[in-house]
Amino acid sequence: MPRLIFSQLKWLDRIVDGKDLTTKIMQLISIAPVYLQHDFVTSLPEILGDAQHADVGKELSDLLMENTPLTVPILDVLSSLRLDPTFLSKVRQLVMGKLSSVALVDLPVIIKFILHSITATNALEVISELRERLDLQHFILPSMFQASQIKLKITGASSSEYQEDDSPNCVMLLFDILKLTVRYEKIISEAWIKAIENIESKHKSFDLAMIFIIYSTNTQAKKNIERVVKNKIRSGSIQEDLLESTFCIHYVVLKDICPSILLLAQSLFHSQDQNIILFGSLLYKYSFKFFDTYCQQEAVGALVTHVCSGNETEVDTALDVLLELIRLNPSAMRLNAVFVKGILDYLDNMSPQQIRKLFYILSVLAFSKHEASSHIQDDMHLVVRKQLSSTIFKYKLIGIIGAITMAGVMATDRIISALTQRRDDLNNEQCTQVTSLLQLVHSCSEQSPRASGLYYDEFANLIQEGKLTPETLEWIGPTVFNDFQDAFVVDFCVIPEGDFPFPVKALYGLEEYDTRDGIVINLLPLLFSQEFEKEGSQMTSQEPGKKLVSPLCLAPHFRLLRLCVARQHNGNLEEIDGLLDCPIFLTDLEPGEKLESMSLKERSFMCSLIFLTLNWFREVVNAFCRQTSPEMKGKVLSRLKNIVELQEILEKYLAVTPDYVPPLANFDLETLDVIPHSNSAASAKNRKTGKIGGRKRKADGSKAPSPDTLSKEDNSECDAVPTGRSQLEKELTGKEGKTSVSLQNYSAFFREVDIEVFSILHCGLVTKFILDTEMNTEATEVVQLGPPELLFLLEDLSHKLDNMLTPSFTKRNPFLKNKGNRNIGFSHLHLKSAPEVVHCVVQLLTPMCNHLENIHNYFQSLVAEDHGEVDGPEVKAQEHHIMASCYQRLLQIFHGIFAWNGFFNLGYHNFLYSALEVLASRLKQIEHEQSLEELVSQSFNYLQNFHPSIPSFQCGLYLIRLLMVLLEKSTAPAPKKEKIASLARQCLCRAWSHGEKEKSSIFNEQLHDMLCIYLEHTDNVLKAIEEIAGIGVPELINSPKDASSSTFPTLTRHTFVIFFRVMMAELEKTVKGLQAGTAADSQQIHEEKLLYWNMAVRDFSILINLMKVFDSHPVLHVCLKYGRLFVEAFLKQCMPLLDFSFRKHREDVLSLLETFQLDTRLLHHLCGHSKIHQDMRLTKHVPLLKKTLELLVCRVKAMLVLNNCREAFWLGNLKNRDLQGEEIISQNSQESTADESEGGTSSQLTKSKATEDGEDDEASDGEKEQYSDESDDNSD
To answer: Which long-range contacts (CB under 8 A, 24 or more apart) does 1068-1076 make?
Structure first.
């Protein structure tokens, strides 16, 4: 009845006393029951007239403060009334303060009122406050917990059921309001993005949810959202835990915008930043984890698209995500297996590691003991058999990789919830399937050495990962052992028969064989037989029933054998330890004088023989490096020494055999088109035909590890072959005209050294004369390691870290180059993850510190003896060069470890602490647990102590880069920054010996980096620039042609342009970062900034005037480019300062402008010089420079007008002159009567016409501005 009576007051045609009616209604509302108050309040807009809106609004706002249950109807009514914006703002503030205490059901209406009251002027402020006060977790998490508790109860009250259903509905209603608002209100969406972007403290899950919502509803904001997200990821503001909580809390809302979330993930995948790519992968992961079947299907489809894109980083990351999804929810992934199976059509562009991942994913889905997976099993078997039987060699290799990976998954032990007898039956069936599949692969590959080598390597990897059951190993072990023995091992007493081109000898045996029980590796006869078959009767090797034995398979077959034995005997290799010290059938390898007289065929045969021997020794070292017996350690070290000696011999042969193509050592797909850098296309083409199986190569394939595909810096480091002597031989034999080669160009043809081999670094380092007397096999735990062997290990470890820890997007290959070449020779390494590699290397830091200190002492003793000069015999020069190379590699390895970006992940901080503790403990014993800052500081102090013994400029650069990496991890960087600047200056002020090549592009780049480090870390950039330009350069000008500056010996006429470019760039960067300041700043700040600009302009003047002496094209280009940028910075940063400093510091300002005027006049002369010489590389900079100079003229005039000193400005015609000041004669020059630059024109900025060349004098000479001393008298 009350509602019926009240409804009669609605829409009355005439109200006699509206004010009285309003008063009565408000009184009625105040005393009515709650359920009636709601109806009465909502009826107010239909009863009241416009005149009463303000009064009612005030009454309702008071009621809002007193009666919280009426919040929703009151706010609903206030939105319908015509109220003053100021009043609405007060109400909004009132409501905002109650957000934390309102009920969830009231929240949508409250948020709607707040958003609808926003204006363009207060949008950012209101949104920032709203996101700060709104805590949705406070509402959602309790309701989620309550719902879960209700589900556990058998019975529940109806009210509980209502709450269970009502909470999600309220949340959905709230986000619907937010979606509509950000979709149709551009002001609100932009303000929300800006508010999130401005957050510097911890983010909320609500922030991420809003990012996803705006991305899904506002098409125009997508790019802006992507930019904000990427910046937040780079800064570390958005972490995985925040993303997971966002999906956990808001999954009901986010599942509706799943396509947009996947679209954002796809965009992040295209980034070059590894952290951003990983965040994109997390979006896929959590979309699959929290959303329904449809969204899961979309996520898998998007990942499949990434895999098929061909981009290496995208493919790797997408495959990793698919692997993670299988672990996360295997049953859901089985439903989407058909999408993953489609990737099999895109195998052509995949690397071997990617193919392994794909087949592993498919195999897990296929052999998961689930009925729905049977059809995938059939498809997998069909695909593998088809590829194995393919006549196209590439697909056969893919089939081998796929079959071995599939066998590994099939053979993996699984927990089967069934009876014991049933489990045994299944295991026996599995074992039968695995063995039959392996037999199929073996039979399909045995006629091709290349295919057999890949089969052995893949099978060995399978055993190394422990994926084969003991039953399978029992079957395969004896077979592998007997096959290897029959193929490659013969008795020592057996004399090889055949018409060999060289006498056959058993060499490199570590023990004397006095009996007939010894064995020997039958290498030379096998190689000769293969070469004979290639030339004579190639079909013989393909005859059915005849087993092909190729020396190419020696190393991979042995790797398989030793892993089988190690797995069966828990790492004990006594069963095959005879292969460690047994000799090899070779011939005398040392070329001596006969090298020049050998035919090309004989030299190629000898090269192949040495390559195969080296690869055998490498695998032997891989096999026995972890044996603990002192005798075995000594033999391993002897084999390491054999490797170093053989590499020296190989260099000599390769130097006279430039078109030689070595036998393959790595058999995966990435080496299909690899030829050494020194080979020509024509010679490679000639070798394309007539070769057995895997020896066949394309002539037009990309040239693997060449200086073109390596980074320039790495190429410089690898000029030395792994023995470290190539560079030295270049210097010693260059006069005789001999050719030297780098074995780094042949790295694809050497077997990979396992990371376990580096445990040899625990051996000590001794000098050469001690090494001569120590190389015996006495049973002692202390085994000595010589400098050449140490360098061999360090170079290999350095390349491994560079490949594994440096993100792939920073090592992009040139266009049309084979993208897989970067990973050739690292296939075993890639079986480990980056954290596993870091853990292994951290364990080696202690022995590497020992070696570093020993080398430091070596160079310190040299300095004490002869001041570091190596003018002694060749042996001493070789030793010096090897020790310097070891020094450089150690610093490079340290830098690679500490620069690993994985340390930003909290999960790997323990690795960082362990590494820092090793360095810190070298100075003093660590007695208690120290903070990260303490460890960083102690490690920094330890490493900086090595600087006095640095033997080369490049070593100095690596040491400083290493210190910079530690600086990034420090919370107190100031003293460390000063020390780095000091060390960099010492490197620049040191005269480097030992053949530092000043004309080398590599040295130039290193000098550029060192100078940048110095100027970026020094506390006074302007003073440092003035010192170099004002002291060092004049010393250079006054010195002889080939001399250098006495203060900065690295500053020569060849390196001047590098110094000049860096100083100009750093000067511009420094002044650009200086704040312009405001008139409200204190007088002291104005004076400091004015003094700073005086110094900057003085430095600029010194540098610009140097182009009169050094007028080469690079110097002039730098002047044009950075001259314009400096003038622009002067306009933006300095002119506002001069505006309010002119009155109090008139003399200083005028002096500054007059100095700058002379500099800009030189820039004008440079423009004329560029035009008269018609140098397009220079003239393209002229228009922008002249425009900037014109702006400077106008800006100076504006400054003078602002300070009531307009009469001080006058303008004249500036003649076109060259760099030497000579006038450039132009078409109109004879008619010009103006004097030099300031020929007086009117003081009213009257612009006399410039020459036809368009060189408006006001533009170029804009600087005539102030400038006469007479102007001082006229200014106020």
So the answer is: 1068/1122, 1068/1125, 1068/1126, 1068/1129, 1070/1021, 1070/1022, 1070/1096, 1071/1096, 1071/1126, 1071/1129, 1071/1130, 1071/1133, 1071/1134, 1072/1125, 1072/1129, 1072/1132, 1072/1133, 1074/1133, 1075/1133, 1076/1132, 1076/1133, 1076/1134, 1076/1136, 1076/1137
CB 1115 within 8 A of CB 1172: no
Measure the CA–CA gap between 742 and 1115, rounded to whole angstroms: 35
Strand (E) positions, 698-823? 764-765, 784-785
Q: 857 and 765 in contact (C-beta within 8 Å)?
A: no
In this predicted structure, the answer to whether residue 696 has a pLDDT above a threshold of 70 is no
* Tokens, residue 1064: 């100009």
What pLDDT, in 10s, does the model give residues 877-922?
A: 888 899 999 999 999 999 999 999 888 777 788 899 999 999 999 8
DSSP H helix total and E strand total for the chain: 55, 8
Residues 794, 677 contacting (CB under 8 angstroms): no
Q: Do 1145 and 1090 form a contact (C-beta atoms < 8 A)?
A: yes
Nearest to 452 by CA among 521, 577, 551, 314: 551
Query: Token pair 């450039």 is at which residue?
Result: 1224
Q: Determine phi and psi for 1225, rounding to 5 degrees.
A: -75, 120
How many Cα neighbours within 13 Å face the side chain of 358?
Answer: 31
- Residue-wise pLDDT for 288-342, tens only, equals 999 999 999 999 999 999 998 888 888 989 999 999 999 988 888 988 888 888 8
CA distances from 1239 to 620, 1081, 1212, 1269 (A): 86, 39, 5, 15
Tell me the C-alpha distance between 368 and 853, whole Å: 54
The total number of residues shown for the chain amounts to 1276
CA distances from 913 to 923, 954, 1102, 1181 (A): 16, 28, 48, 51
pLDDT digits (tens, 9 = 90+) for 133-172: 887 765 665 555 444 444 444 344 444 443 444 566 777 8
Global pTM value: 0.78
Q: How many CA atoms lie within 13 A of 193 on its CB side?
A: 23
Pairing of strands 1239-1240, 1212-1213: antiparallel
Helix (H, G, I), strand (E, B) or coil at 784: strand
What is the CA angle 25-29-34, rounded to 5? 155
Domains contained in the chain, CATH given: 292-447 (1.25.10), 453-532+548-676 (no CATH), 786-807+826-863+877-959 (no CATH)
Q: Which two tokens stand for residue 1110?
A: 């050094």
Amino acid at 921: S
Which residue carries 């084979």 as its tokens? Answer: 818
